[in-house]
Specification:
By secondary structure, this protein is mainly α. The protein has five helices and two strands. Helix 1 packs across helix 2.
Length: about 180
């Protein structure tokens, strides 16, 4: 799984892509929460639930159905008066689904149960550029953590920066063009 940093960057960039200008705090907080929430199933390993079980990590909480439920919960908590807003729904649903998609793009670990509870199949992407984040950190695992964070910065962080920077750069060029047309 990518670290909390990778999932947070995904939630932030999705909230930026779904809004014009700077995203309101409520939108980016809930989008980040939706993007991080499926990893709460990591704690099921502390209760002896084995990999491959529906309740294990990357199981039911990473499914498409869970993404819909997480998005619905975020909408009820943060946007009760705007439940009919397709833009808010798209933002929360995309953020929740991004978690499973990023996990499927990691090299290492089990696949993601996108179709739970209808199928026990686990899926991985054909291309897995992100290395799984090691837990816990000790000794050589620190080297592995730094390497996995590097892959997250490359494959999640840089595209997230483009999502933040591109609209502002386009607006800057647009305003600059208008100013040059106005000046004699």
């Amino acid at each position: 799984m990518p670290s909390i940093l990778g999932h947070t960057l995904a939630g932030l960039s999705i909230s930026a892509a779904c809004t014009q200008g700077r995203p309101p705090r409520r939108i980016w907080v809930l989008a980040v929460a939706c993007a991080v929430a499926p990893d709460l199933d990591w704690f099921t390993g502390l209760f002896g639930i084995q990999d491959g079980h529906s309740l294990s990590h990357r199981g039911m909480s990473h499914s498409l159905l869970a993404a819909l439920l997480i998005a619905a919960l975020a909408m009820l908590i943060g946007f009760r008066s705007q439940l009919r807003s397709p833009r808010h729904w798209a933002c929360m649903l995309s953020a929740a689904f991004s978690h499973g998609l990023l996990d499927a793009c990691t090299f290492g670990g089990t696949g993601v149960a996108f179709l739970e509870p209808f199928s026990k199949a686990r899926f991985v992407c054909l291309w897995q550029p992100i290395f799984v984040s090691p837990i816990p950190m000790s000794g050589r695992l620190l080297d592995w953590l730094l390497f996995s964070l590097g892959t997250e910065i490359l494959w999640i962080g840089l595209p997230a920066c483009l999502v933040f920077i591109a609209p502002r750069a386009i607006e800057w060029f647009r305003l600059r063009g208008k100013r040059s047309e106005e000046t004699p």
